[in-house]
What we know:
heterotrimer, A: mainly alpha, Cytochrome C Oxidase, Chain A, 16 helices, B: 2 domains
Amino acid sequence: MSTAPAADAAVSPASEPSFYGGSSRAGIASWLLTTDHKRIGILYLVAMVTFFMVGVTIGALMRIEHLTMGPTIMKATTYNAMFTVHGVIMIFLFVIPGLPAVFGNFLLPIMIGAKDVAFPRLNLLSWYLYMSGAAIAVGALFTGGGPPDTGWTFYVPYSVKTGTNVTMAVFGAFVLGFASILTGLNFITTIHRMRAKGMSWMRMPLFPWSLYATAWVQVLATPILGITLLLVILERVFHLGIFDPAIGGDPILYQHLFWTYSHPAVYIMILPAMGAISEIIPTFAHRTIFGYKAIVFSSMAIAGLGSLVWAHHMFTSGMSEFAIVVFSLLTFLVSIPSAIKVFNWVATLYKGSVELRPPMLFALAFIFLFSIGGLTGLFQGALAVNVHVHDTYFIVGHFHYVMFGGTGFAFFAALHYWYPKMFGRMYNERTAIVAFVHLFVGFNMLYFTFLVLGLEGMPRRYYDHLPQFHSGHIHATIGSWILVAGLLIMFANLLRGLFRKAEVPANPWGGVTLEWTVPSPPPVENFDVLPVITEPPYTFNHPAKEPAA
Amino acid sequence: MSSTTAHEADSPHVVGYATFIKVWLALVVLTGALVGLSSAHNPNLALLGLLIITPTKASLVLFYFMHLKYEKAGLKYMVTTALAVLVIFIFLTFSDYLFR
Amino acid sequence: MSESAEPHTGDPIGEHVTEHAGEHRDYVGAKLGMWIFVFTELILFGGLFVAYGMYRSMHPHEFHHASGELNVTLGVINTLILLTSSLTMVLSIVAIRLQRKGQSIAFLAATMVLGCAFLVNKFFEWSAKIHHGLYPGSEHLMARPPGERLFFGLYYGMTGLHGLHVTVGVVVMSIMMALLVRDKIRHDDFIKLENTGLYWHLVDIIWIFLLPLFYLAA
């Protein structure tokens, strides 16, 4: 990048106010009516962290239920509602919007040298759809037949028959899907149309690339969920009868349609996470990413191939063996581009000048945790293994490793990395490391135990367990307490940092992408003068860019 | 000035009424052919109608009415991708149903 | 704030962001956004086509038989209505680009009228079916073989969702009509009308597939 300044030296110029102050409106209207992508990113952040903590609380309560055999703090039916709502909140309100909603919105335009996204008002609409969908989903907890108890997967026939408020919950997810689609649409157009002069596709940094791949999945996969959920509502309300076996309908068709979205959804979750890691590792290794092109092509390959593997969630459902073989093969294939990325990140560390600051610690943890998650996923892709581990805690361990250890930790990494840019302040790095240690230890204590419990035969979505699983559950629950402690320390630290007085420079970490060339926090228009790009991304050996040691 | 240049640069000529009317005529004729084939009480002919005539009609709307013929290659690739994704969804789901 | 036009290098879609009356306009970007939305609609209906495909392969005879209950004439008339409305829609856009505002308004009005005619036909068609007891959950339908019940479930689902899209299309067109009359849509700024056209043509394409799948399957 030709316009990167020397790190550390520049302080926010007094000429332009930051985007926090630069609005024509006052007070809350300046937030609720904003079309500034940076404010919208912050709006998402506040909402999502809130929902995340609610989801964590439910998860913690589920763990306490398993502290004793038999009912501990809730009935069996309550537990069913708990794991359903935990899944719905975590997946639809936190992990899927995830990094794109917060960091994509805040950083994409800046990282490609633009003033905003292609459709700023549509961007605000996305946020309102997100909040509406969330409100509807929360409303389902307290109205009608009460919170759904079907699991977040809403399988028929139970989801059509149960008296709980599936209709409303599912409608909430439908609305949330729209938010996701519109964000994807916005990002695709932004990346195609608004890159700075000289920023060819192969000069675009990897986080925007990951957002691009993700956006295509959002746009092409989410509508299938829309229609599937709509059919569930139509069947519940109008007895349309598409999935009803009594009239020749096929419940497995529901699973096909559901997973045709919900598997690509996990790539919506992980691709931007990988993109953030691809930004953080070069910065803290102080050298260029290894294999930029390979990572670009892998991202697109994951998006493409990942849309073809959905029925590996259905190996034991009763579908044809031929289909099982087809999907098993495709599942093995999709692991390849992910592995390429892991190799490239690790290779980037080689002969780098590695600095173990908090974002880097979270990023390294990501690589470790995602690898475990990815490998356990690969095991499940083999039918012979799948038959034994399907619907056990092995699966639960697997997806928490990828969704929480993967996307979750990448979210925390991104939060610690871009925090100075977004808020113009810095958190306490030592406390961040303390939080990190709690998180890492607690996480593995909880979820590695799940992998073991699953292999031993502990089924998922059961409120109770047999004696042979008891010590494992206690171990896991204690791990969950350490994990929660880590979360509380982390969020408290980040919150406290907002109130510190010291301002931060434009480039506290010595990064070389465009966001580090603008003040922290950025002004409303991002750039005084739109940059012109003349170099590939991640060019570190430029003398002007080396941070003051 | 520059705003008209923008539109002209992307599609330098405005396609006139005549082309669209001809496309419409073709669509009507094809619809008639489709109905004819389907009424012939021959399931193979009916299938032919479904698999050939219907996509042809859709293509005419896509290329002419939706202007895709005159758009740049990138947009054509995107349309192809979206259609391919749908076709693949259908085919992969059939891998279950046709082999039960 | 206003930035001079910045060409976008290396972009296969197109160039030229422009300034018009101080507002930042990107004709190609707006069109691209609409096309992406069209893709999402395609996949939305696509899910229903998946369901249709699977169930037809499972119950070919019952689908064939149930299709005989539908009124082919009405289906074909509705097809011709929509095809013609697609023509008038595109002619409306051509007209405004050639600065023939009067014709543009007339063609857009014709499109709206044809859209409404489609909906009226659909209303009569559905009323007749419901009157005969052929609707989801009815005793009459429940007495039929499973494949036929699935056929009608899909029929109401797909034509219903399609009809909803036609309705929305007509509403959007009425808004475009207001803009056209007030010169907010002009020969040098017609992207809103063009995007409305893209939406409408997709609705037409969906019906092009619904016709043989439901009405001509007998």
